[in-house]
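For the sake of transparency, this paper describes our internal protein records without simplification. Because each token names a local backbone shape, the row as a whole describes the fold. One such record is reproduced below, unchanged from the form in which we store it.
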Amino acid sequence: MIRRLALVAATALVVLGGMVRAQSRPVLRDDDVVARVNGTPIYRKAVREVVQETLSRQDEDPTPATIGKLVEAAQNSLIALALLHQESQARGMKVSDRAVEEEIARSRARFPDPNAFQEALAAKGMDEATLRQDTRQTLAVNQLLEQVVWKDVRIDTAQIQRYYETHRREFTHPAQVRVSRILVRVPAHATTAERDAARQQANALLTRLHAGADFTQLARESSQDVASAANGGDIGYFSRGEMDPAFEQHVTTLPPGSVSGVVQTPYGFEIIKVTGRRGGGELPLAQVQERIRGVLTAARKQEREAAFVAQLRQKSKVELLDPVAP
């Protein structure tokens, strides 16, 4: 959770658009300090960027109440990030220049060319020096989490068995198809020019696949569905009626291993690959135990992280200086 939000704050190259704001409110500047963590300022700009990244992955217009909750969550996440970074420095944790450059290279690879990467940095008001600084902070936090907070998180066979027995319905399914996707996202209120540019980008990715590019690698580098991109585009198994109709129409006709053309869905333009099919029934424990282990591990890590941050916050000076409005 912290790692994702930290990377959003450091490298999510999205400019905040029209947030909901009452006409009578004063202008809220990006450089307003909304909180201090042991003297370290947290700026409204950082909060806005985290919120906007979250909103960019949603397909419905948010209500003011939704935005308010996202803003509060973003501020708390940035406070947690500051506390964790300060603790990593207090413990003397170091991040090598090579690790920083490798992380930036992975971010750069998600853009079609170097110019697009530089334009995104400029649009966000960042240069590469600032990006390196933010990335170094993020990696230091990750190091603290891995080496201290999560170091003894283990899930044993008995825990997996108990989860399986108490959630058996989750592992009973009708006939299903396993799907991977490469998504070029189109905002809900995109202009014609923006939509055309997204379609062209999707067509260019399809051309690369036809030329022999590996689907999994291309999804990691280029898909704008962050969650599935990390898994090489894999979004798991679906049964009939669980997918968007336009998506499902192509999935039902593709044999395993084949790739669709560019498909327009409510999310944008997609390239779909069917990677497997299976009949209905109950999945045996052996087939799902690693999935269960992942679920239980993530939950345990989140619990440990929340408790650790709470301890840090209790012994720190956290000042909330200004109402965090969008």
Remarks:
- The chain has two domains: 2-153+299-320, 175-279.
